[in-house]
Amino acid sequence: MKETDPIVLVIDDDRAIRDGLESLIRSIGLRVATFASAADFLNAPRPNAPSCLVLDIRMPGQSGLDLQTHLRASGIHIPTIFITGHGDIPMTVRAMKEGAMEFLTKPVRGQELLDAIQKAIARDRDLRQKRAEFSELRRRYESLTPRETEVLNLVAAGLLNKQIADQLGNSELTVKTHRAHVMEKMQADSLAHLVRMAEMLKRSMTK
Amino acid sequence: MRQPMSDTVKISGLARAILGYLAAIAIVLLALLISLVLQIRFGNPFWFFFAVAVILTTWIFGKGPGWLAAALSSAAVLYYFVPPYDAWSLSWRDVPFFLAFTLCQIGTNFLIAARKDAEEALRRARDELEIRVEERTAELKDANQELVRRIAEQKRAEEALQAARAELARVARITTVGELTTSIAHEVNQPLAAVVANADACVAWLAHEQPNLDEARVAAERAVEGATRASGVIKRIRSLIHKAAPERAPIQLNHVIQETAELAAGQAARGHVTISTNLLPNLPDVLGDRIQLQQVILNLMMNAIEAMSAVSGRNRELLVRSRTDESGCVSVVIEDTGVGISEEAMTRLFEPFFTTRAQGIGMGLAISRSIIESHGGRLWAAPRADHGSVFQFTLPGAGGAKA
């Protein structure tokens, strides 16, 4: 199995449950890493692969809910499946608010858990891809010169070359050259593609 | 109101005075008559009848008429019995006699009047005393009633306190049971979760096109381990419950029934239920935990009261009986005239969490049965002949029954 294959991260303080879940998940060909506590998990290196977290809500030390809150606060977004002995309502509500993917009660049926894991991993894969695409876009955008950035913004605003030249006090030819550089650096197939990318960047930056 | 009454008193006082004086005259006349008759018959002057007349008059009618009688007597004696007879004159020879007679009359009147006054004062004092005693008695009676009322109030307060304590104990017990249940549920659920995960993994490994027997075996072994662990947890809980075994002391169930009936009285009154008991005298003691057995009886009585809350058109009666059988077992029978128990409910009555009430948790009868069984007895229910139901439990007698 490769480093980039999906991996399931199981955190449960009960060794027997940990081993059972590990075996179950491995049986469908997924990679598994198990941890006895939230601290163990936080100390381990983060895998660079689509992953999801299977978390016992009640654990000695840092509870599953606390860990989830902690991860979100640190900007780490991993789809999380909670497992609970008896899901009381306030706990469930809190977990859902923190963005839990799934909330399963113990003892969890294997198929139910595997389905939830598959869904969570698919979602993470999606998220990772989007994040990767976006950081590539960011990289391209940051490679533009200040003048090229200005041209890109004005093009995205729907101005014609002549209007851009007037606004920047340049000749139309210079603007055309800048624009060609922008298209090349941003790897845009068409004007529409470029505008779409500019929109995406703008949205993320105003966020 | 007051004025006419004192008028009546005055008038009757005057009338009595007039009557007294008239009577004085009559009595003296009678004495004179007797004296004259005796003198004519025997020749001697029996003037001492006048003394009797004065005594009588003073005694009956008081000092005033007494004086009149004395005066009239002296006049009569002077006129009829002192020579010269039948004349108002008096010879010097007879003056000492006449004076002695008159002084005697006056003295008699004085003594008798004094005596009469003393008696009158005594009577008044006695009357006053009687009134005082009555007043005091009334005061004492009031105080006594107040005391009785206070005692009753205190008793009520004590009963309320006891009921509150029983309720608290019940709630505490339920809470403890709840906490215990949660912790047991968690303890048992953990290994069960491991069993399920491992068994699922085992099945998954076997389901591969080329079953991975090694992985399947390891998972199956772990499932077995988990199951063993779960049963270990249950064993531990069992031994824990045994360790906390209730105390066993001789208990007179009749007392427990009476106490419990008092505890339930408030609830019964609110539900218009009459509680009656039919307790076997000299009921043998049973060995057990008094609080637990009281809990059972209270629970059964409360159930019975509850079962009658919707009844109308017949009396709401709760009867508690205690009996014994030839084997020395003691049994307690609780009958109600309530709505009874459906056949379907009858089969599930003692199951935990089975309830027919909106706010019941369905543990009462299950706990009651487990208490009775832990005492070596039995608890069961049956429909009553007409309406309602009969709950009954038996316990072995403390004197070594052949239960």
The outline of chain A comes out as: elongated
Rounded average pLDDT of chain A:
85
Structural class of chain A: alpha/beta
Question: What percent of residues of chain A adopt helix (DSSP H or I)?
Answer: 55-70%
Order of helices and strands of chain A: EHEHEHEHEHHHHH
Count all strands of chain A and give the number.
Answer: 5
Query: What's the total count of β strands of chain B?
Result: 7
Sheet of most strands of chain B: 5 strands, mixed
**Structural class estimated from helices and strands of chain B:** alpha+beta
Order of helices and strands of chain B: HHHHHEHEEHEEHHEE
Shape of chain B: rod-shaped
Rg of chain B from C-alpha positions?
A: 50 Å
The helix tally of chain A amounts to: 9
* Residue windows where pLDDT falls under 50 for at least 5 positions of chain B: none
User: What percent of residues of chain A are in strands?
Assistant: 5-15%
Estimated share of beta-strand residues of chain B:
5-15%
Give an overview in words.
Chain A has helices at 15-27, 38-43, 64-73, 89-97, 110-142, 146-156, 161-168, 172-185, 191-206; strands spanning 7-11, 31-35, 51-56, 80-84, 102-105. By secondary structure, chain A is of the alpha/beta class. In chain A, α7 (161-168) packs across α8. The longest helix of chain A is centred in the middle third of the chain and has 33 residues, at 110-142. The radius of gyration of chain A is 24 Å and the shape is elongated. The model of chain A has no long low-confidence stretch (mean pLDDT 85). With 403 residues, chain B is of the alpha+beta class. Chain B has helices spanning 2-42, 48-61, 63-81, 95-207, 213-243, 253-270, 290-307, 343-348, 364-374; strands spanning 249-251, 274-278, 286-288, 317-324, 330-336, 378-383, 389-395. In chain B, the strands form two sheets. A five-stranded mixed β-sheet of chain B has the order 2-4-5-7-6. Chain B has a two-stranded antiparallel ribbon with strand order 1-3. In chain B, α2 (48-61) packs antiparallel against α3 and α3 packs antiparallel against α4 (95-207). The longest helix of chain B has 113 residues, at 95-207. Classes of the chains: A alpha/beta (207), B alpha+beta (403). At the A-B interface, α1 of A face α4 and α5 of B.
